[in-house]
Every structure is written in C-alpha cells, then in structure tokens.
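In the laboratory, one determines a bound structure by crystallizing the protein with its ligand and collecting diffraction data. In a computational setting the workflow is compressed into a single prediction: the sequence and the ligand go in, and a structural description comes out. We illustrate the idea with zinc ion.
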Amino acid sequence: MQHPAAESAQPLVVYGASSLHYDFGAHHPMTPRRFGPGIDLLRALGAERFLAPPEVSDAQLHRAHEPEYVSIVRMLSEYPDAGPMAGFASSGDDPAFYGMHEAAATVAGGSVGAMDRILAGEEVHVFHPGGGHHHAMPGRASGFCIYNDVALAIGRARDAGHRVLYVDLDVHHGDGVEAIFWNDPEVLTVSFHETGLSLFPWTGFVDDSGGPQAQGTAVNVPFESGTSDASWLEALEMIVPALAAAYRPTVLVTQHGSDSHMLDPLGHLQLSTIAMSRAARLLDGLAHEYAAGRWLATGGGGYDLYRVVPRAWGLVWLAQAHRDVPPETPAEWRSRWAAEAARHHQGPPPDTMLDPPDLVPVEPREVAEHNLTAARTALRRALGALERQTAG
Ligand SMILES: [Zn+2]
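The predicted complex, in structure-token form:
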C-alpha cells in the first residue's frame, strides 16, 4: 500500500548545517563548498522539503563496519595526527580531521534515516546529495569515504525483508558497497564506472559477479576512457531494466556521482547532463514499476562545483519530483554564484540545465564497441546466474 500523502508530496532532501562538517580541508576536492551552489539550485528549482541528517549510533555502524574500525575513527577524530592507520593518512585521499567521526556518522545517519522513512511509508523518494560514500570498506577508509552510508541504508532495507537493487553511476567503481554485499543474494549491486585499468579504485571488471552464495548479484560495467553519452546510455538502458525485471527489487538505492561528466577534473569519461537526466528518469520509472516508488538516491562524487554538481543534483531532484527539466538554469542562481566560481578559478554556472548535445565529443567507434561488448557480457552472465539461483 502506498502512503497517499507521500505520493503527492515533493521528494524529501536530506541536508542540514551539519552536512558541512564533512571536510578534509581547503585543498581537498571533496569540499563542503559544493553544498552552497548545489543546495541553492535545488531551492531555486522549488525544493522546500528538507531533513537535517541525524547521527547514527555505533551499533548501527556495525551493520557495515568492524567495531575496531569504528573505534579507530573515533580515536583519530579526537587525535587526527595519531595515524596513519585504517586508510587514513595525512598525505592521502583520506586525511583524518578533527570531528570526523561525528561528521561521517551524520552522513550515514542521513541515508539510514531516509531509508527508515521510506520503509515506514512516510516517504516515497528521498534524495541525499551529501551521501553516496560508496568506497568505505568494513575496516578502512578509502576514496574520500569514511562510513558507507549507502551500504548502511541498504542493510536497513535488507534486514526489513526487502530485495534491494543498488545502481551506482559514479565514475569510480562502487567497490565498498559491492564488497559488503558480495555474498548476499538479497542485494543486487550494479556499478557503471570508468574501467579499473585507468582509474581508482582499480577494480570492477566484468568477471566480478558476486560470491558463491550470490552469483550474478554483483554486476560491473566498465567503460573505456573517452566514453560519452551514446554508449553509456545504451548500456544503461540495455542492462538496468532487464536486471530489474529478472530480480524484482522491492527497494531502489542509487548513487549519482557526477564525476563522469566531461568537465569533471578527476575522471576520463565524457558524459553530459543529458545522460545524467535520462538515467535519473529511467530509475524513477523502475522504482514505480517494481518497488512501489521506494527509492533513496544519493549524490556521490563530482568535483566541478559550479558547472556540474549543482545541475546533476537538480536533475535527480526534478526526476524525483516528476517535473520537467526547465530549459534554463534560474538566472538569480547563476548571478549568486558567478563571483565565487571565479574566485576559485572554476567555470561559471551554466545557462542551461541540459548541456547542448554537441558539447560531448563523438565516441571513437572502438570505444563504443568495447563498452557495449562489456555491457552485453555483464548482462548475459548476471541473467544466467540469477536464473540458476531462482531455479535452485
Ligand atoms: Zn517517482
């Protein structure tokens, strides 16, 4: 039964002042500065429903993390110079910072709290732009991620008896979420990412398809450097609806990292916001078709803070709100952030929500062929394994 009030409401956005506390320092690419232009664009598009994320308890963190790791994070959170340990190193991707346990437990609480509301029938779609910390491992920090909020939210749904479809669109392989549910047949993880041959975390190959008890429930679709919208969208539209039809999830959890955009400084894919918008709308359709609308979307990576991240978030929100994409970005939003962008030597807020179709380069034929071969192989294997699992 769907909650009638929830269905008519606009999506809930998880964001509050404490979202800004997750901060590795001024020169780190994952800066809370992203929330300024990002949340402001959501408000300018009409977002009015916000939830300040609560902190999760240690007991809740233990669903995905080793107790010893949580203790280490707590200790480094008070004494950031005590490392390096457990993935934290001052010279690496994850420098320990003062208060990081509380900051990361609040990111986790945002996704877990969102899932609790979805499971209670109070919300249908929730968007947590500060979530999506998909690299965090049971016993170590990795790739700007401390606690795996996505895995914790998935665990919550799974422990309540749901079958979860997780779709990860970040340019980096969703390795932490995959590892945590590697051998769990009730969670299907699907990651679209730049190939591990050229990008961190160097994993996520087509052959990696789940543990012995859960064959076919990890799906990896690696893309070649230089991929643009055409083959990425073709692979997405080929794979995700077919997997949903075979697996019949009852909850969707998604990660919309916008570091796959051609303007992003970290990855080497060449997507535009057209592909991102199409992807979000496809996932919305699947949430309604299979899961009575139950859908938690998270933000994830994205490091071009004025040109890309805000519009990527806006397009997820618009898909969840079932609203058309306006052709232009709000003029007052652009004027509010142009000076700050210039001050940080970043490109100015763009005029349009969707990039002009000729922004992205045409893919080399061998790149597209390579991608689609990988996609077909990943799909064939997953469907075969899921069928055998159902039969057995
Ligand atoms: Zn919807």
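The pocket of zinc ion is lined by residues 125, 284, 287-288, 293, 320, 322 (CB under 6 Å). Keep in mind that any predicted model is a hypothesis to be tested, not a measurement.
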